[in-house]
Write a structure and sequence with these properties.
NAD; alpha/beta; 8 strands; binds flavin-adenine dinucleotide; FAD; eight-stranded parallel β-barrel; about 300 residues
Length: about 300
């Protein structure tokens, strides 16, 4: 950031709530493949609510060890077919041979999907150590290179502002991110975090390591605090003490909890915006309302064309 931009950022931080937000942010939304018809209906309602905001893309996760292969494919294909939003498919290489992974990627290409979120993945049993498949891709960087050899996919990869739990060090993890981008990925989507400084420090460290690609903060609007604590423990994301205090005593007050959740995530996004962020990736958990509210605070409004398509 230049001195001018820093001044601008400071003014935005001190200024009135969201007054400096110009509606110029891009967003993307992440969903997980639903397990039941009821979950499918809920997810689809969320997609239709969020699609009119004109996201850059929506992505669909891939279950641990490839367990949702068909459901991920079905969900991505439906989004591609029934909305005008570009759909991205997550793909992991854990517990699969190169041929198996390549076959899934080829199916995506044939179905018109041009964007893959390429990940190593984790073993299906929690706590097991990752061991590459003997005939598989050894890491996400390896997978990115493999996908690029197949087709000219647009590829996003994962990044960890608080370092991946298995990384030898924060700088080794940034070297790994650089390898993934050098192998052909276009952007990094981050693990969730709750302090804007965590993201800014990471962005600075990545820039110092020569990374010029877009690093998109992953935003998890938290309404289930206990579940988030569990997730965060598994992926090495810190939960600040103030967050526990804010959710304390709200278990029996779901509406108040939602308002607190929107305030926390909205404030995080406002401060990221003030620091120059113009693309936010939302972990929607297949629900629209919190992500929609935060996008609204960021100045996004439904676009007529996408609204018609979603209807
Ligand atoms: P990698 O980039 O391969 O890194 C894994 C670890 O190995 C890191 O610690 C890295 O530093 C280290 N490493 C890699 N190569 C080297 C090397 N050559 N030398 C030294 N160290 C190395 N999981 C799913 O199962 N399905 C999903 O859909 C999914 N979506 C995700 C989306 C996002 C935005 C994020 C942030 C994560 C997602 N994950 C998903 C989780 C992800 O699969 C796990 O975090 C996994 O443990 C690591 O995947 P990766 O792609 O970051 O791996």
């Amino acid at each position: 950031l230049s001195v001018g931009q820093l001044e601008e950022a400071r003014r935005a931080l001190d200024g009135p709530l969201f007054a400096d937000v110009a509606g110029d942010a891009d967003v993307s939304f992440e969903f997980f493949p639903p397990k039941t018809d009821k979950m499918e209906a809920a997810m689809w309602e969320a997609v239709q609510t969020l699609a009119p905001l004109g996201p850059r893309f929506v992505s669909v996760t891939y279950g641990a060890g490839g367990t949702t292969r068909d459901r991920t494919h079905g969900t991505v294909a439906r989004i591609a077919r029934e909305t005008s939003v570009p759909a991205a498919a997550h793909l992991t290489c854990v517990e699969a041979s190169r041929d198996e992974v390549d076959a899934v990627a080829r199916e995506y290409w044939a179905a018109g999907v041009r964007h893959i979120v390429a990940l190593r993945g984790d073993p299906p049993t929690l706590g097991d150590k990752f061991v590459p498949h003997p005939e598989g891709y050894a890491s996400a960087a390896d997978l990115v290179a493999g996908l690029k050899r197949l087709h000219p996919f647009e590829i996003s990869v994962a990044a960890y502002p608080e370092a991946h739990p298995e990384a030898a060090s924060a700088s080794a993890d940034i070297d790994n991110l650089k390898r993934k981008l050098d192998a052909g990925a276009t952007r990094a989507l981050t693990q969730f975090f709750f302090e804007p400084e965590t993201f800014f420090r990471f962005r600075d460290a990545a820039a110092a390591a020569g990374i010029g690609a877009e690093i998109v903060p992953g935003i998890l609007p938290v309404s289930n605090f206990a579940q988030t604590q569990k997730f965060a423990g598994m992926c090495g994301a810190a939960i600040p003490d103030w967050m526990g205090r804010l959710f304390d005593g709200l278990d029996a007050h779901p509406a108040a909890r939602q308002l607190v959740a929107a305030t926390i995530a909205g404030e995080l996004c406002r401060r990221l915006y003030a620091g120059g962020v113009r693309h936010f990736h939302f972990y929607t958990l297949n629900r629209a309302e919190l992500s929609y509210a935060i996008c609204h605070l960021l100045g996004l409004r439904p676009k007529a064309e996408e609204t018609r398509a979603a209807a």
